[in-house]
Sequence to fold (285 residues):
Amino acid sequence: MYIVFETNSANHSNGFSAVFYRQDLDYAEKCDLNFDGMCKPGLVCRCDKYNEARCLCPDGQYFFGNNCVYPLQTKVFPTETSVSLDIHNVGMNFVSHQLIWSTCWEIREKLTKITKDVISGLTPGQEYNVKIISTLAADTYNDPTVLKSNFIVITLPAQPGEVLEEESNLNTPPYVLKFNSSQGIVHHYNITLVSDTQVLTYQVKEAELVTSDLTADTLYNYTITAFNKLGNESTTFRGNVTTGPDQSVSVGVIAGITISIIVLLCCVAVGIVVLDRKRRTQITQ
Fold:
């Protein structure tokens, strides 16, 4: 409550007059623009559409559920190529919602009168700046009100593809596994290779893995998952590959081959000596 004392300049002997003002006024109650703090917290004393001072919501906010609400609350559900929007806290009568979404090189928009809508035709893994401009219908005290909200949304990455065996090197280390990249934009890929004796996990930026950790002549089950910059993951691709046989030659094999060659050479030499002696014997006779 405010108490204001005013002097009577015409006759000071009359003393003071007291004017009393209420505080904590509810929504739409009349107030006086000359005094602050008359309205309940969250409300402001301003002129309505009839130019009468009332306790109303500040500009850009609207009254819903006994509170002034701002910004407009929106639930966002991204997929690979679309974003579903659920514009809620809409107990008031909205005329329309203008949806604007943009990247650095493209701006698109649509007008809708429903509170649940879908922005489609998006690029997987792409970052979009989304703006919603909502027009709230006029009510008893307010002209049509425009509410604006902005947010960033990143679509989910698309599923990567299988390992391209013809383009990969699965025979000799370092092994190279090339796979079909995801459509759109990818921050990184996670690749896991599992055999009977190994579990190997890698993170790569491109659709290619180079490693010397694999074992020759071994079946590996693999999974490949793409991630966007927020860490949201794609559907995982699953497959399997088999590395080629071991093409290296062991020391034992080399030693065996060497001994065999030496024995063969010795046999050849002995044979030559025997033939030479026979020839000499025949000549002597």
